[in-house]
Each structure stands twice: as C-alpha cells, then as structure tokens.
C-alpha cells in the first residue's frame, strides 16, 4: 500500500492526477532567445494547495492546473498508451570524445532545449572534447524537462539535483522532478525517473506521458 504521506502521483481512470504528499506546485515558463530558442527556465511562485490535490489531465478545466471536473462533461478518454518497458530497454547511447549522451525518445516532449542557435546536440556530442561545446551541451541537457536526454561521464550517469516538485509549464505539460512515484490507472508499472513530463492537454498518444501534442493542438494554459 502506498504511504499517503509520501510524494506520489496516481493517475485516475479517465480523470485527473491525484497528488499526495504535499508536493510543491511551482509554475515554469521557458525563457527564449531573440530568435525564439528556449535557453533557460523561469520559475514562478509556488501555488497554494492542499496536502492532497488534483491536477487536470483532460485539458478542459477552467481552473488549470487544478481539476474542476470537466473530464466528466467532456467524456475524456484517458487511456494510457505509454510503453511499460524500462529506460534501460529503450536507451540509445551516443558516444563522443568528451561525453556520452543517452537518448530515450519515448520520454521526449519536444521542448527543444537540445538545439542551440547553430548546432543540434548530436553534432555537439561528436565535438564534446572541446570544453566550450561540452559546457553548452551539459547546460542544454540539464534544461531538458522530460529526461529524454541524460549524460554519462566516465561511465556514470550525471543528472541535475532537482527538487521534489511538480511544475505546470506554460502552454505545456507537467514537469515532474525529484523521482516522484507515478502510478498508472491501468495498474501497469511506471518506472520512477528524476525527470518526466506528464500530459495535461489531454491529446497525447503516450498518456500519461507528454508526446508534444500540446504543440499541435495549440494548448494554452498559464500556469
């Protein structure tokens, strides 16, 4: 039985996310360059909430990020299609002279931090023995909200030390950090990750994960 006091997210069948453990709720928005490329995150003030609260998963709530029951009126189909294998099963390793980048495309929500003004991350891996490129690559990957990209140095995975929190991203998904346990409504196991992006627009084809569908549907939510 899950300890209700522990940080935990439970997906409700065709309904919201039930959040227990008094998890901080801090909105985020991407800060972009003059050309529109995301370069860092700006975190807002923590939103007031109860120790247990419910976050919208269907995208229709009038009280975002909280659920207001709209999923019932919209007959929301919350069927979970995310694969139930592990990160290790899916991982693709890109080895460079200065670092190895591990790619898990299933987790990607297309936040596009992995592209600089002049290079994509794959090109940068090939030149990762250049200290300046290596520093830029580390910064790009550490800003990835979904954990689709991680890095290895000397055979060890290195991830940013992120707080236990849920961050509704402006016009995007819920960025979950700190290794919070997520339980799927269908009872299938879900691997705990230090970073993961959960759908809140209702349109993802990899529920409960975000797959970037909020971009296609022009989802709007602030926070």
Q: Explain this structure to me?
A:
- With 223 residues, the chain is of the alpha+beta class.
- 14% of the residues lie in helices and 24% in strands.
- It contains five helices and 13 strands.
- Strand 6 and strand 7 form a beta hairpin.
- The model has no long low-confidence stretch (mean pLDDT 92).
Based on CA inertia axes, which overall geometry fits? Answer: globular
Structural class label? alpha+beta
Termini Cα gap = 32 Å
Output mean pLDDT: 92
Strand arrangement in the largest pleated sheet = 5-2-1-12
Radius of gyration: 17 Å
SSE pattern = EEEEEHHEEHHEEEEEEH
Largest sheet: 4 strands, mixed
Oligomeric organization of the protein chains:
single chain
Total DSSP helices: 5
Measured by DSSP, the beta-strand proportion falls in 15-25%
Helix content: 10-25%
Strand tally: 13
The low-pLDDT segments are none
């Amino acid at each position: 039985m899950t300890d209700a006091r522990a940080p935990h997210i439970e997906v409700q069948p065709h309904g919201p996310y039930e959040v227990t453990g008094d998890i901080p709720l801090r909105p985020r928005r991407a800060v972009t360059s003059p050309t529109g490329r995301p370069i860092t995150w700006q975190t807002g003030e923590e939103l007031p909430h109860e120790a247990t609260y419910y976050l919208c998963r269907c995208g229709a709530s009038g009280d975002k990020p909280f659920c207001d029951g709209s999923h019932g009126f919209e007959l929301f189909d919350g069927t979970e299609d995310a694969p139930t294998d592990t990160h290790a099963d899916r991982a693709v390793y890109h080895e460079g002279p200065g670092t190895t980048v591990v790619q898990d495309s299933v987790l990607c929500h297309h936040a596009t931090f992995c592209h600089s003004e002049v290079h994509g991350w794959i090109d940068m891996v090939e030149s990762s023995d250049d200290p300046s490129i290596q520093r830029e690559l580390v910064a790009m990957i550490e800003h990835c909200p979904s954990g689709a990209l991680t890095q290895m140095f000397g055979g060890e995975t290195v991830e940013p030390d992120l707080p236990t929190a849920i961050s509704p991203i402006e016009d995007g998904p819920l960025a979950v950090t700190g290794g919070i346990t997520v339980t799927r409504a269908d009872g299938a196991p879900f691997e705990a990750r230090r970073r993961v992006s959960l759908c809140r627009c209702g349109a993802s084809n990899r529920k409960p994960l975000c797959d970037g569908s909020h971009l296609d549907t022009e989802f709007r939510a602030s926070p």
